[in-house]
Write a structure and sequence with these properties.
With about 500 residues, the chain is α+β, with helices and mostly antiparallel strands. It is about 35% helix and about 15% strand. The protein has a domain of about 260 residues. The chain contains 16 helices and 12 strands.
Length: about 500
């Protein structure tokens, strides 16, 4: 009997770390929950957060001074991390870090301070990375430390857009990932990259939607297609995929085409951006789906629900990097129109990968750039009907930039049949032979599957707590960058565009 292939363990590639075309940093908002899945009492959290931050500082210093810390990262550190006080956040850990010829001070660990009330959001922020290994190392290290210091406080990390037992939506108490991309050649390139991100906002919402439960249940009965319980299709048309985004109208862009973030022509400046979204100042305008005028000179992508794993996080990093490379290569980025983005954004929030793809509001983008138009709209004879089909075409279109980044590479990814395990979760979700269900199948469908499973297994017991238990376990296991709760096989033989 042949031996079972051992699962590889991720490690920092000191000899040949994988470079990123653009610098990339992340802000990860993580829920801190009590054992019963609720939010800890506000009066206690001031003191608890202080202990968490202080304990984290000691752990982090120990790691950064040890042999476990790669030389590349040690060379970028400006001193050791320090405890500091932020008027909005309270105690935070600050790390000086070199990026190019500059030094930035990053509040890498603390409480999210974007709302005035005492919140329960743990914010983990990576320094800006120039290499993929560097970004993965920081994510793994910060998540590992966070888990080590919160469990002794009887608190548990849950990485999802909205923890399933939350009784009602509360402003500021939802959880997302923010991506900061930098290292552009000039302002013109930055605008082009912002424009391509804007065009694909609905696609990325559908890929990252991960908040389908509230009050311990979905918003409707879970309707599935198929008879095999291990191979159901979780169409669930009445189940909202991102309850977080459906309710979050004050800290992101409004779902109104008249004031939605605009396509930026080469000569557009911040004043033009402000005039369209109807904000008085840059400080007042930062809570948008994408913000191209951050103080760090980055493009900030802010819309994704918090995913369950580091693997999925890195997958979205690679997707954004590939889109940015495409923006650099294309002669022109067409404006797909605010009306079409808003319409598809709304549908993606409601139905995720299963949402209808609405093309009736899209202008004649093929006349501006045929390659872009074909990728965005689909073939003339077979236009996209559903969002998952639009995502399939997007991933196919991005094969070359991802191959250039060695994400598709037989030698580098020999343990994974030539396909990086970090892009696999995205490809699997729309193309794959998923182990436990039928594609399309993302993390929100995974939560619906868990709910469906426990509800049928024991209909007399509350289902929400059992789902939460599994989400906490998944968050704990995400210390392993290769871990993904959705396993399966990328069907290369049927995907002719994967040419290795």
């Amino acid at each position: 009997m042949p031996k079972k292939k051992e699962k590889p363990t991720w490690s920092f590639n000191e000899k040949n770390p994988l470079g990123l075309p653009f610098s990339h940093g992340m802000e990860c908002e993580i829920a801190l929950l009590t054992a019963d899945g609720g939010l800890p009492a506000g009066s206690e959290m001031i003191h608890v957060f202080k202990r968490i931050v202080e304990d984290s500082l000691n752990e982090l210093i120990g790691i950064l001074q040890s042999d476990y810390c790669p030389k590349m990262i040690k060379d970028k550190l400006v001193g050791m991390p320090q405890l500091a006080f932020n008027e909005e956040k309270g105690d935070v850990i600050v790390q000086g870090y070199k990026i190019g010829g500059d030094i930035v001070n990053i509040e890498i660990f603390g409480r999210d301070g974007n709302v005035a009330a005492i919140t329960y959001i743990l914010e983990l922020v990576t320094p800006p990375a120039t290499h993929l290994d560097e970004l993965i190392w920081w994510l793994q290290t910060l998540f590992t430390i966070a888990q080590q210091v919160t469990v002794p406080q009887n608190l548990y990390l849950c990485s999802t857009g909205l923890p399933p037992l939350i009784k009602e939506y509360m402003r500021g108490l939802t959880y997302s990932d923010h991506h900061h991309m930098g290292g552009f050649k000039d302002e013109y390139e930055k605008k082009r990259i912002y424009n391509i991100f804007r065009a694909f906002v609905p696609h990325i919402i559908a890929l990252t939607a991960n908040s389908p439960l509230i009050k311990g249940a979905p918003t409707d009965i879970i309707k599935t297609i198929g008879k095999d319980p291990m191979h159901l299709r979780y169409a669930a048309p009445g189940c909202v995929r991102s309850i977080r985004l459906m309710n979050n109208v004050s800290m992101l862009s409004r779902n109104d085409p008249k004031v939605y973030i605009p396509h930026l022509p080469p000569n557009a400046d911040a004043n033009y951006f402000l005039s369209v979204i109807q904000k008085a100042s840059i400080a007042d305008a930062k809570f948008q789906d994408i913000f191209p005028f951050s103080e760090w000179k980055t493009v900030e992508f802010r819309i994704s629900d918090a995913p369950l794993s580091i693997s999925k996080r890195i997958g979205i990093v690679l997707l954004l990097q590939a889109l940015a490379l495409k923006a650099r290569e294309l002669s022109e980025i067409p404006d797909v129109g605010s009306y079409s983005i808003v319409a598809n954004r709304h549908e993606s929030i409601l139905r995720g990968l299963y949402s209808p793809f609405k093309s009736e509001y899209i202008p004649d983008i093929s006349s501006v750039n045929r390659e872009f138009g074909d990728a965005y709209l689909g073939n003339k004879n077979k236009p996209h009907t559903y969002m998952f089909q639009a995502i399939q075409k997007m991933l196919e279109w991005l094969f070359e930039p991802l191959k250039k980044m060695k994400i598709y590479d037989k030698k580098l990814n020999k343990d994974f049949d030539g396909i990086s395990p970090f892009i696999s979760p995205l490809v699997l979700s729309v193309f794959g032979d998923v182990d436990i269900a039928q594609a399309p199948f993302g993390e929100c469908e995974f939560q619906l599957l868990l709910y469906n499973h426990y509800q049928h297994k024991n209909p007399q017991s509350p289902t929400g707590p059992m789902v939460l238990r599994d989400l906490i376990k998944a968050t704990f296991r995400s210390k392993d960058p290769y871990y993904t709760p959705i396993g399966g096989v990328v069907p290369q033989k049927s995907l002719k565009w994967i040419k290795l």
